[in-house]
Amino acid sequence: MMLKIIFNFTIILLFFVGCGGSNNPQPAEINKTKTLPTWYINESKDTHLKMYSSSIGKNKKDAISNALIDIVSRLSISVESEFQADTKVSGKSYNKEIKKTIKTKVNNIKINNYEVLNSKRISYNKYLIKISIDKSKLSDYLQAKVNKKFNLLLEEEKAISNSNPIVQQNKYNLLIQSMNDIVPKLYVIKSLDQLFEDKKYFKTLDHFQKQYLKLKYKTNLYVYAKKADKNFTSKLKTYLLSYNINIRKKSNTDLYLRIDTNKSIVNNEYFKMVIYKAKLKLYYKKVLVGENIIEIKTHNKGNHNRISEKASSAFYSKIKDKTLFELMNLK
C-alpha cells in the first residue's frame, strides 16, 4: 500500500514539473540593430564624386583597413567589367590568367586619401567606422604614379637604342612586364573618371610587344665552332633554335657566337672521369659583349663518341632553361 502511494505521488510530481516547464518563456533574441547607429545600418550609396564604405574591426585602424578593402574590392569588380567590355570591343585575346593577374594587382592598390565620416566603439573589441574617398583625388593620385612610371619606361627604351639585339630583346620583355603592372591602374582610373584618355598607354604597350616579337623572331646569329666538339656544337644550335634565333651560315652578321671545347681526363684508382669545358663568347660588331664557361663532368666509360654524346646532353640540360641574355651574362 505504501509503495502504491509513493508511486502515485511521483507520477503527480512529474506531471506538474512537466507542465511548469512548458510555461517558462524562451529567452528573447537580442535585437543587435538596436545597438548600431543609423549611419552604419543605412549605408550611403556611391555618387559620381565619392565612394562610401562602412565597416567593423577590432579597433579604429582595423575597421578603416576593412573599409578600404571593401572599396578596393568594389573597384576590382568595376575594373573586371570594364576589362571584359574593352576586350570584347577590341577583340583582344586576353586569357583568364591575365584577367586574374589584373584583378590581383587592383586588390593590391593602396588608398591613402580617405576621410573618416563617423566612428563608434560598441564593445571592447568592436569598432564601427564610416569612410569616404574622393574619386577625383584618387584618380589624380593614380595618374601621377602611372605617368611617373610611364615616363621612366620611355627613357629606358631610348637608352637601349644602341645595344645589341639580345640586350634589346631582354629589355623590351622587361618593359612589357612593367607596362602590364600599369594596366590595372589604368582600368581603375577609367572606372573613377570616364573622361580619362588611356590610348597612349595601350599604344605604347603595343609598340613594346611588337618590338619584342620583331627582335625575337628576326635576330640573326652566326656560330663559330671550328675548335669545338661537334656534339656540343649541335646541342648549342638546338638551344638557339628553341629560342627562335636564326642561325646564319655565313659570318656577315653583326652578332656571332663562338664556342670552343676542351677536355681533360682524370684517372686514378677510384674513378675515371672526363671533364669538358665549353667556352662561349658572344660578339656584337666584333666587340666581346658576353661570355661563359660551362663545365661538364662524366664517367670515362665507352668510346669517345659515346662519352661526347653523354657530355653534350648534360651541357644542353644546363643551358636549355636560360635565355641567351642570361647564358652569356649580359647586362
In short:
This protein has ten helices and eight strands. The chain is an alpha/beta fold.
The CATH class of the largest domain is Alpha Beta
User: Into which percent range does the helicity of residues fall?
Assistant: 40-55%
Largest sheet: spatial strand order? 5-4-6-7-8
Q: Largest beta sheet, briefly?
A: 5 strands, mixed
Beta content comes to 15-25%
- When the domains are counted, the total is 3
Q: Total helix count?
A: 10
- The low-confidence runs, each spanning 5 or more residues with pLDDT under 50, are 1-31
CATH superfamily of the largest domain: Lipoprotein like domain
Separation of the first and last Cα atoms: 110 Å
How does CATH name the architecture of the largest domain? 2-Layer Sandwich
Encode the helix/strand succession as letters: HHEHHEEHHHEHEEEEHH
**What is the SS-derived class?**
alpha/beta
CATH topology of the largest domain: Double Stranded RNA Binding Domain
How confident overall, as mean pLDDT? 83
Report the strand count: 8
Rg calc: 36 Å
Which term fits the overall shape? elongated
